[in-house]
Amino acid sequence: MQDMAEKEVDVGALIHASAGILALMLGGLMYFYAWAQPVFSGLMLLSAVSAIIISWRMNAWVPGHWLAMLPVIGVGVGYLYSPWGFTFAYICLWIAFTHFIVRGITGQNS
After folding, report:
1. Closest Cα to residue 77, out of 69, 66, 67, 88?
2. How far apart are CA 105 and CA 12, in angstroms?
3. What is the per-residue burial (b if ≥16 Cβ within 10 Å, else e) of 48-84?
4. What global pTM score does this model have?
5. Cα–Cα dist 64/72, whole Å
6. How many other CB atoms are found less than 10 A from the CB of residue 93?
7. What is the DSSP letter of 8?
8. 3-class DSSP assignment, residue 83
9. Cβ pair 57, 12 in contact under 8 A
10. CB 3: neighbour CB atoms within 10 A?
11. Which residue has better confidence, 44 or 18?
């Protein structure tokens, strides 16, 4: 019989995953529509904050979690320094997404 905790939905993980998937889609649109860039940036911030909260709650601070903050740094560079920061953020997001897809397919836990 499953434990009750196993049946509960992790809202933080759901927010994190949803923000990441939506950011993948809107990141591509930001090259064509000006409104998509701030939405992409907001989703990246939401994803980063939820990742930090999940890591804190699960006591799961691994180097990959810190590397996952690169898209947020890219957004900061995009707003404060140069537009290439947004492209950097988008590329890093695709790298992270690809990493998790490969991890899921291969069954790796680390």
Report:
1. 88
2. 23
3. bebbbebbeeeeeeeeeeeebebbbebbebbeeeeee
4. 0.76
5. 14
6. 23
7. S
8. coil
9. yes
10. 7
11. 44
Query: Residue 12 is encoded by which pair of tokens?
Result: 């933080």
- State the Cα–Cα distance between residues 53 and 16, nearest whole angstrom: 10
**How many residues comprise the chain?**
110
Contacts of 82 (CB under 8 A, 6+ apart): none
Q: What is the pLDDT of residues 44-101, one digit of tens each?
A: 888 888 777 777 776 766 666 666 788 888 999 999 999 999 999 999 888 888 877 7
- Please, which residues have CB within 8 angstroms of residue 32's CB and are 6 or more apart in sequence? none
Per the CB < 8 A criterion, the answer to whether 68 and 96 are in contact is yes
- 40, amino acid identity: F
Residue 78 tokens read as: 């995009």
Instruction: Please report, to the nearest 10 degrees, the dihedral formed by the alpha carbons of residues 7, 11, 16, 18 taken in order.
Output: 80
H helices of the chain, in order, are: 4-7, 11-29, 36-58, 63-67, 70-80, 84-106
